[in-house]
Amino acid sequence: MIISPFNSIFFIGHRKFSGIASRYIQTFASTDRVLIQIIRASGEHQRPVVVVDEATGVTAKTLVMGTKAMSNGAYVDYCYMEDLADGLYHINVDDLDSIPFRVTSDSKILDSTVLIKYCVGNNLRRTDVLGILNSAPLYFSFRVPGGFVDDGVSFTVDNEQFITAEADIVELYSLENYQKKLMVGYSYGVPIWFGALLNKLLTCQYVYIDGVRHVRFESSVPQKEQVLIGHNSFVFSQMLQEVLYNKHFIDDYL
After folding, report:
1. pLDDT < 70 regions, the chain
2. How high is the pLDDT of residue 247?
3. Where does residue 209 rank: exposed (0-12), middle (13-18), buried (19+ CB within 10 A)?
């Protein structure tokens, strides 16, 4: 069994840590639909997936998982986690626990975040995630502290021109582009796995940030800046290009 690496909730691995851990608590809105996917071999049984209240240690919700067979013989167990009351939780799968995360309806907290929704787009590109179910896209939701910064905006154009015999310039085609810099972490920083997930989700075919589709700008990757030496908190910046709107069936599921 493996937890899909596209899950927006991080599960603690068995490794040693050095330095001071980040104190950032991952945040979701009470209205967010958070997709959970677990990959298992054909001979493995489905594990119970429960949401545990951090304050009491009591199970707040048992997630009812659906199952889909993959082309490689593996199975994907999947479920949307939603309708949780405001509070602090973690997810337990067998002997694995996720990091604690917060669910809130406080607009003051949510206004300082952006919601990233992403979908692989098909079931052939990867074997560690399910992208389409019954012709419908499966979107993950990842809410991060940060936003786009004005000093990272740049304007370009893709065009081609030619000059006639009368010295008239003719525009064969012209398409404007709009590049933006997404900053994640503000000044207090986020854990390193935020950058790893940001880099991974940008390999998806469909990425929407606050409802607007974006793609990675050329081959850029998240740039990290450590907030304080010895402290495992980082600020990430990523150059993105806004996609001009083209209606696609996948948009109906956002």
Report:
1. 13-18, 245-254
2. 56
3. buried
